[in-house]
Design a protein that fits this description.
The complex is a heterodimer. By secondary structure, chain A is mainly beta. Chain A is built from no helices and eleven strands. Chain A starts with a strand and ends with a strand. By secondary structure, chain B is an all-beta fold. In chain B, β4 and β5 form a beta hairpin. The chains are: A mainly beta, B mainly beta. At the A-B interface, β4, β5 and β10 of A face β5 and β10 of B.
Chain lengths: 106, 122
């Protein structure tokens, strides 16, 4: 099975900072990757799919890039509502795998 | 607006069967991929499986021997059964919709239920 490794596991940042999270796949997954944001006690929220396509309604400060085995999620200017945990997900047709998460905290 | 709502017992005894239902409004479960995902307290998300076209299923290989996902199309609901549960199955269980993107080759989860905590304990 394909494994996803996120780094860092924890990230301390301030409002206005540029934040970058990396997700590495154990095999080539082309661009079949999504990013989610989860806040405590809430369900995850889809941010980006197909590695770089912004989900409707998601602020443009979020962006994704990468293909193959290395992917990044970037928040260009961190806002107070952006603190939470971010997960990448492999979107292969047959097996869906999540990364272990990156907690962004102040 | 698509809405999903999980329902079912919050406490299950070890070795018994966990049963949950997801009620969907705003979309037909005949369309899209309807999924179950769980999250043990403080841990990562784990995909359990999905159902599409009302009856086709695909499961996480690590859970496949214990999982059944089925659909009740007249009620627009889909269900999860997980047999022979242990304390390791204690988690928040989410249902979610996978919508076709990437020309139909990927199905990101764009709508989620609020989640329901299921505790396995005697």
């Amino acid at each position: 099975d394909i494994q996803l490794t996120q780094s860092p596991s924890f990230l301390s940042a301030s409002v206005g900072d540029r934040v970058t999270i990396t997700c590495r796949a154990s095999q080539d997954i082309r661009t079949f990757l999504a990013w989610y944001q989860q806040k405590p006690g809430k369900a995850p929220k889809l941010l980006i799919y197909a590695a770089s396509t912004l989900q409707s309604g998601v602020p443009s400060r979020f962006s994704g890039s990468g293909s193959g085995t290395e992917f990044t999620l970037t928040i260009s200017s961190l806002q107070p509502e952006d603190f939470g945990t971010y997960y990448c997900q492999h979107l292969n047709l047959y097996t869906w795998t999540f990364g272990h998460g990156t907690k962004v905290e102040s | 607006q698509v809405q999903l709502q999980e329902s079912g017992p919050g406490l299950v005894k070890p070795s018994e069967t966990l049963s949950l239902t997801c009620s969907v409004s705003g979309d037909s479960i005949r369309n899209d991929y309807w999924s179950w995902i769980r999250q043990p307290p403080g841990k990562r998300l784990e995909w359990i499986g999905y159902i599409y076209s009302s009856w086709r299923t695909n499961y996480n290989s690590s859970l496949k021997s214990r999982v059944t996902i089925s659909a009740d199309t007249p009620k627009n609901q889909f269900s999860l059964k997980l047999t022979s549960v242990t304390v390791a199955d204690t988690a928040i269980y989410y249902c979610a919709r996978g919508t076709p993107r990437c020309g139909g080759d990927c199905h990101p989860l764009d709508y989620w239920g609020q989640g329901t905590l299921v505790t396995v304990s005697s």
